[in-house]
């Protein structure tokens, strides 16, 4: 507790009082650069000391106003969706948070092609510094990655069009495609894909294109063991299966952000893991 200054203390107490889960508070602290076990200790001590006790008894009106409202998800209904040039099967739909698992978004050849094109471009992955928005290498994200700018060539354009059709969101609201590679032991600890509005560094990233609204993670290989995409708040774990994908949506039409979409990449315990990620924004993104 002695490492916490008054500002952090106040932040922690107000988040506990708002009813945030301990896991999401720890995740936000880790994203801000605090060591994960220290963050867990600090949250545990605050709870034991009675900070946030009011959460259960006061301010239901404030809570109501802040509660994320689940509005209609843009993804088409049905068990099979025509996405530009491909029929994509829907395996699972979760309502709260909004998560959809797909099969067969990419063919085996497309997955293999992307992996081969990426091998020589890979660089250690970074994370947004919450204070100044810079891209920093951190220990909670142990992967390497590279980017393919939107519609860079014929294959990337076809995939961008297919993904935009599947996510039912304009193609020019999408960031480039990111490829990530995790070796055995690699992981991405729980985080939010949106840029937390209360962090100064987020401004750098939302100034063009606005906030991120939804993510599609496509698995490019079968992972021998581990490497599931986990949603600890929703208690959902998605297995990496070549060509399959998981979609989740965290910004509604009112601009609220869904803390239930806390998610991470569990450690790969055997083999390796390759994924491709598409993040969609509120507005045109260049
Ligand atoms: O590799 C994953 O499963 C994963 C998990 C959480 C990837 C991301 N987030 C991401 O690319 O944002
Ligand atoms: Zn993520």
**What small-molecule ligands were found?**
pyridine-2,4-dicarboxylic acid, zinc ion
**Tally of alpha and pi helices:** 7
- Head-to-tail CA distance between termini: 43 Å
Quaternary structure annotation: single chain
- Compute the CA-based radius of gyration: 19 Å
Overall mean confidence score, pLDDT: 85
- What is the level 1 CATH name of the largest domain? Mainly Beta
Question: Structural class from helices and strands?
Answer: alpha+beta
Q: So, CATH architecture of the largest domain?
A: Sandwich
Main β-sheet description: 9 strands, antiparallel
Shape: globular
Low-confidence stretches: 52-63
| CATH homologous superfamily grouping of the largest domain | q2cbj1_9rhob like domain
Q: Classify the beta-strand content into a percent band.
A: 25-35%
Fold-level CATH name of the largest domain: Jelly Rolls
> What percentage of residues falls in helices of 4 or more residues?
25-40%
Number of strands: 17
Order of helices and strands: HHHHEEEHEEEEHEEHEEEEEEEE
Strand order of the largest sheet: 1-2-3-14-10-17-8-7-4
Keywords: Dioxygenase, Iron, Metal-binding, Oxidoreductase, Vitamin C
Domain Fe2OG dioxygenase: 173-282
Protein name: 2OG-Fe(II) oxygenase
InterPro entries: Oxoglu/Fe-dep_dioxygenase_dom, P4HA-like, Pro_4_hyd_alph, Pro_4_hyd_alph_FE2OG_OXY
């Amino acid at each position: 507790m002695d490492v916490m200054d008054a500002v952090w203390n106040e932040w922690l107490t107000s988040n506990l009082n708002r009813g945030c889960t301990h896991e999401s508070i720890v995740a936000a602290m880790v994203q801000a650069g605090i060591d994960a076990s220290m963050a867990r200790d600090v949250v545990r001590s605050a709870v034991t000391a009675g900070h946030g006790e009011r959460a259960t008894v006061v301010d239901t009106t404030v809570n109501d106003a802040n509660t994320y409202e689940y509005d209609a998800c843009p993804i088409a209904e049905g068990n099979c969706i025509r996405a530009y040039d491909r029929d994509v099967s829907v395996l699972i739909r979760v309502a709260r948070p909004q998560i959809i698992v797909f099969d067969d978004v990419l063919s085996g050849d497309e997955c293999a092609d992307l992996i081969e094109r990426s091998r020589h471009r890979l660089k250690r992955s970074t994370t947004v510094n919450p204070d100044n928005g810079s891209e920093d290498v951190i220990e909670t994200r142990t992967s390497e990655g590279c980017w393919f700018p939107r519609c860079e060539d014929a294959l990337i354009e076809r995939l961008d069009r297919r993904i935009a059709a599947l996510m039912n969101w304009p193609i020019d609201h999408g960031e480039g495609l990111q490829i990530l590679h995790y070796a055995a032991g690699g992981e991405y600890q729980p985080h939010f894909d949106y840029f937390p509005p209360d962090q100064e560094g987020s401004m750098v990233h939302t100034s063009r294109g606005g906030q991120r609204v939804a993510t599609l993670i496509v698995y490019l290989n079968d992972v021998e063991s581990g490497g599931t995409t986990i949603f600890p708040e929703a208690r959902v774990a998605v297995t990496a299966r070549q060509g399959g994908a998981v979609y989740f949506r965290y910004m509604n039409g009112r601009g609220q952000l869904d803390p239930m979409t806390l998610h991470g990449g569990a450690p790969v315990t055997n083999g390796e893991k390759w994924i491709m990620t598409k993040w969609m924004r509120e507005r045109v993104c260049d």
